[in-house]
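step=predict obj=Sarcosine oxidase subunit beta n=416
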Amino acid sequence: MVAKTAGQPATPGSELPEHPDFLWENPIPKRNYDVVIVGGGGHGLATAHYLVKNHGITNIAVIERGWLAGGNMARNTTLIRSNYLWDASAAIYEHSLKLWEGLEEDLDYPILFSQRGVLNLAHTQQDVRDSHRRVEANKLNGIDAEWVDTERVRELCPIVNISSDIRYPILGATYQPRAGIAKHDYVGWAFARRVSQAGVHLIQDTEVTGFLTEGDRVVGVRTNRGDIGAGSVALAAAGHTSTLTDTLGIRVPIQSHPLQALVSELLEPVHPTIVMSNAVHVYVSQAHKGELVMGAGVDAYTGYGQRGSFHIIERQMAAAVELFPVFARAHLLRTWGGVVDVTPDASPIVGLTPYENLFLNCGWGTGGFKATPGVGDVFAHTIATGSPHELVKPFGLDRFVTGHLVDEHGAAAVAH
């Protein structure tokens, strides 16, 4: 850690911890593994961690076509919360939030988890009614949710514009105090370091192009570096999942959309919590180094593009300045795009497939980062036992046949 000179302001980011000399190995792939995880993002790495920790399985390969945690893990806005509407969603996200609260000790690595609370603003009477409904539903599920009036919004975030003379005046908000942010690259590196220490092979720059099958079993994966045998195969490849399952004739109802975000220049601490608005269509937090991190909804078109576009940026900035006039002179520093995989009911797909040892984890939309430890834990259980964990039973692929959907469009904030 860099010390601050007495009387001098600290350099932005100087309080961030130094990284250790060792993070992970880059091994030569073996011919066979007990479990092959396709996708070296947060979910793939977390799944490997809990397979090791909770089930004693270490003969694991995590295969990543790019670099570890370089996809959505590196391209999100790091918001962590559990205040979803439906029981099934609240349960999995609350499970994850509880794991976040002990994750730094579990991984023995600083992930800078900061529980600063999240405000979901209400701008219309319909917003108010929906917000009260969600707060009461959250309370029934044991989640720390409350309704706050306009004055309390101002107390929690003094720079938000609570004037009644604006296009979308703030009538109040839902508030979850335990919500927060974490430093996403540190989270990815922490999981990778932990599982590498346990003997898990992290194989980067290797693309899975298909599968080896025998009857109703998958016995391996085809890669651009040769075939690799597997006792079980777990897909954690987000929006690219359907391109893989198509090779097996399994239809997975996900669409991939670009999701853009941006950060400002470094600023002094001015934004103490996280603020989200459906109507104005923006969410804002302040990162550890001081950048304002802003996101909005997904782009309407489908695609795998990972870049921003000017009209979206213009709209995000206009929304942010309406809520926070103090940001009007802040400079935009960087923009980027991620790829979010969205299902018809805005809920994930986790569990079994028609192949007895092939498992699915995809369709998280914008909820993927916040679910990282939670889904890693329950997905590992599903792989190790061959049966869906209780928390993911509602999210099986078969719900699109049975009609038992978990429709979270209305409570997933701004992004679906």
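step=describe
Residues 125-140 form the longest helix (16 residues).
step=end
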